[in-house]
Every structure is written in structure tokens, then in C-alpha cells.
Batch of 2 targets.
Target 1
Amino acid sequence: MESHLELLIKLQQIDTLILRKQLLINEIPLKITNAELPLKEEESALIKLKQKREAIEKKRRDKERELDDLNEKLKKLKARTSEIKTNKEYQAHLKEIESTEKELYRLEDEILIIMEEIETFSQDMKLAEEKIKSLKNKVDAIKEKIEKEISELQKELVSLKEKRGKIVESLNMETYNLYMSLMESRGGLAVAEVKEEVCQGCNMNIPPQLYVEIKKNEEIIQCPQCHRILYYKGTT
Ligand SMILES: [Zn+2]
């Protein structure tokens, strides 16, 4: 039969593994958030592009309406030409037609520029959409990998907890309670090795007399400073 000390050493090894695996599981949501970050950024960039394109399309519609009005105006002006009587009136009329046409050309140029801008926005949006698609694939792959990791970790936890249960059954209540209270107050390390007369839990030098006792690995001896349960592994 194993001594209580041997059982405690094993229990500590198992609990250290359990803590480590639980830490890994706890880190997973952050891992997912980090993996999703570039995707989220690209998605919000796309939304901004869409908003900009919508605004500029509205501008185009406004300009086109203006253009229609000017065309209408020009048509009416030209239709009135035959009604003009005097030369002076005729000169003024021609001037008005000319300035309306100028305005019309200016508007047409503006609309062309706007169309080019819309085209650029559309291309940028297409690029962003492609990027989003590839980022989504990446995130999905990462999530799939992480899910496998979680299920692997959980399986390992189940088997560790089973082993733990068997050890705990063999311990008496007093020893187990001591162990658990040390686990809680000493950051998850209740059983510490003594190496070259130093407690590996708190780095305190162990008095020679006590060291001799610890080296026997027979009884439960606690560190005078941190109260962790001490054991000796040997020089190898
Ligand atoms: Zn100590």
C-alpha cells in the first residue's frame, strides 16, 4: 500500500495537470475573440464602404435630376427661338442657351467623375468581400481546431478526475483537508519538493535536522515557512 505522502505527491501531480488544462480551457474564449478580430475589422470596413457608396449614389441621383432639369430648360429655350423678334433679344437668348449648355457639360463631367468614384468603391467592396470570405474560412478552421482541443481537454479532465477520486478515497479526511486548504491558500501547490535543502514552494532553507526527516519520505512534514507538505525526490 502507498503511504499518505506518496498519495499526496500523486494527487498534487494530478491537480497540477487539472489546473493547467482548466487554464487552457479558460483561455479559449479569448483565443476565439483574437482569431475573429481581423474578420470583425474587415466587416466594419465593408460597412463603411457601403455607406460611402450609398452617399455618393445619392449624390449621383441628385446630379442626374439636375441634369434632367437643365435638359428640359434647354429644350424650352430652343423651342422659343422662333418666337424671338429683335436682334437684341436674340443675342440675349443665344447667350442663355450657351450658358445653359455650359452648365450642362459641367454637370455631365461631374456625373462622370462620380461614376468613376462609384466604380472604385464597388471594386474596393468586392475586394473587402473576398477578404471577408477568406477570413471567415480561416476563423472556421481555427474554431474547428479549438473545438477538437476542447473535447480532447475535457476527455483528459474526466480521466484525471477519475484518477483523483481513487487517490482521495485512500486518504483520510484530515490529510485531505490539510491538502485542500493548502491548495487554496498556496496557489495550487500544496506538496512541494525539497531540493538541496531548499523548499521549492517558498525557497526557504530547511533546517538540517528537518531535512534528514524529510529525506526519509515517511511522514507528512510541512515547511516551517509556507506550511506546504514536503518530500524529497533525490539527486537524480
Ligand atoms: Zn516552504
Target 2
Amino acid sequence: MAEQPNLSTPDGLESLVCHACGADSLSVFDQSRGLAAVTSDCRAWPASFLVAICPVCGLVQKVVDAAWRQSASRIYGSYDLYHQTPGRTEQVIFDQGSGLALPRSELMFGHFFRHRPLATSGTYLDLGCGTGPTLTAFSKLASGWQLFGYDPHLPDAQRVLAIPGVVEVFAGDLREISGKFDLITAVHVLEHVTEPLPFLQAMRSLMHADSRALIQIPHFPSSLFDLAIFDHCSHFTGSSISQLLAEAGLAIEAIDIELIPKEISIVVKRGEPHLTRPVGDQAESRAAVVSSIAWLCALQAQAIGVDTEHVGVFGTSIGANWLHGLLAERIEFFVDEDLSRQGQLYRGCPVLAPNAVPGRAQVLMPLPPVTAAQIRRRLGSLSADYLLPPGDTFIN
Ligand SMILES: [Zn+2]
């Protein structure tokens, strides 16, 4: 077990204000300064960050200061989601219920409409629509609906407007949108928002009494790289998101951390705002931060200490890119079981099938220990040295 991070307020930072509740006494985890960073669109990011927890509302968060904002703005200015997926479609999730591999949005809507019949017409607004994967999935389901998109950093309005059913796309300030919508989605948006309470309050003002909103966010205690994702400024638990929604006047109709692995899926409707600020339970969050930072530190130490000239990295997603920031040109190749990626170049290095890895190489596995152990067993007796990540197999 690595040394526990210190909890303190760093010198020179006069104001450490919680970006969810405004409390001005954030506790900082100093050890997070030494961690490598990666962006949510899977690029190594050469800047340090500071993880903190709010002693009032319990939200785990990045310290959002001028340097963080500057970096985040550069990240969004060059955002390239799904660059590693052929066709640039959205992430595919294995549905435990149906046994099918489905795009994330289809899985989310399928689950939602299983319990609530889809009306023949209505208005739908997707917050943080990007290039429109969620709008596209909804469009296939609901041909009689009017669709709207919103994104403060709208990358390609024409592409979104070309999706069948889309009437209008909005950019700029969310509070300037008028009218009410029957259904609203915010899929992987809230963890990026530096003022989440006003954002949720604005979302509430776009809902009538029968509206529903679907929110998806990472569940940080089960998502081992979440703290290292630079542009994620909030790291939610079931408890901390529930506090925030209550304060915004949104009533939870359903909350699920099983539907999509490592994510929290929530259905909300309009409720009454809480007049007093709810106090969050911090024990779970604090323990999750300590173990997450310790694991990332240990994984970094393992990678830096690899003693061979032939270094490979297993995978081509978030963990692999995080290691790419640490090791850069020391990486000779990537290894991926995905046939569509094998034989390609990735970050300037070849992507090899597991059985094509040279015998003298060492392959780092930046994956949760349970997953890495399963893969290692499945690969069987290959000659390369596959290095299991540090940690016990209970970390999944
Ligand atoms: Zn707070």
C-alpha cells in the first residue's frame, strides 16, 4: 500500500472555493500534483492538477484556478472525441441484459423507454451535443419528435442540423435558451461543467412538470483513471450527485450505477429546490480518492521503472494514453485485441495483436487489476512479459 496522501491547504492558494456549493475551505490532496494527466478525448496532457474534496458538500473536484481553466479551454479548442474509433462513432457498451454490444446512447434510451412508453411526438433537447451521437440515436427512435441540440463549444453546427428531426442547435449561454422540453439529456457533460449548480438550475428551468431529464456521469470510485482526466473537474459519487441535484430542485426518479459500467445513470424530474444546503457524506469519497491516487502513483512508478528497451502498452484508450504522457518515445508499440486497430499506427507506434508481440518485450497493462488479470489468463502462454498492474484484484 502506498503512502497516504496528505490533506492540507497548499501555500499561496488563498481561496480554494468549492465549485459546487461555494464553501471556501477545500481540502487538497497534495500527492495528486505528481500524477500524469490525460484528456477525456484520450490525449496525454502535459499539465499538473490538484484534487480536492469539499468539507461541506463532499464533492471530489479539481481545483479550478486560472491555470486549469486555460488548459481546459485548450483541450476543448482541439477536442477530437472517438478519434481512435473507426468511423468516429460513439463508444460501444456491452449490455448485460440483452447480451448485445450497443452504442452508449442506444443502451441508455432502450433502458429508459423500457419503463416509459415513447410518445408519438414531443420536444427533445440534448445538452452538450457535440457532433450529435446522442441526437442521432434518439432520431432513429422517435421520428415524430422535434430535436434540439446545445453545446457551448459547438464544433460543427451543420453536421448536427443534418440529423433527421433536428430543428435548431444552440451555442453560448444555456440560460439564454427559452421554452420547455419534454425530454432533456446531458450525457457526460456535468463532470466538465465548472458551475454545475447554475447549469442544473438552468436545465430545470427548461423543464415542465412532466418533463424528464437523463443524466450520465462517470462514477469515480469505480473508474480508476477518472481523477487523472484533466478536464473532468467534478468526480461524483452517488451521494455527491444526489446532494447537488437536490439543491438544484431536481427530484431523482431513478439512479443506477449498474446499467453502464463505471457510470451513474440518473432520471430526474422537476422538484422543489432545497432551501438549506445538504451536507454530503464524505467518508466514501475520501476513501476512494486515497485509494485511487495511491493506485495511480503505483502504476506510474511501475511504468517509469520498466527495465527494457522494448516497452509495449496494452490498449489504445484512456489508460494507454495516460501512460503515453509518462513514457512518450520509450513506447515501442501498443497491443490491442480489437481487430480493427491491429496493424494501424497509433501515436506513431504500431498496434500489434497479442500474439505478434516480440518475446523480449515487456507490456504494461494500464487497466483495473481484475480486468488485467482476466486478460492475462486469456492470453495464456505468450512469450512476452505482460506486467500486471499493481494492486489487489479487488480493485475493479
Ligand atoms: Zn462543496
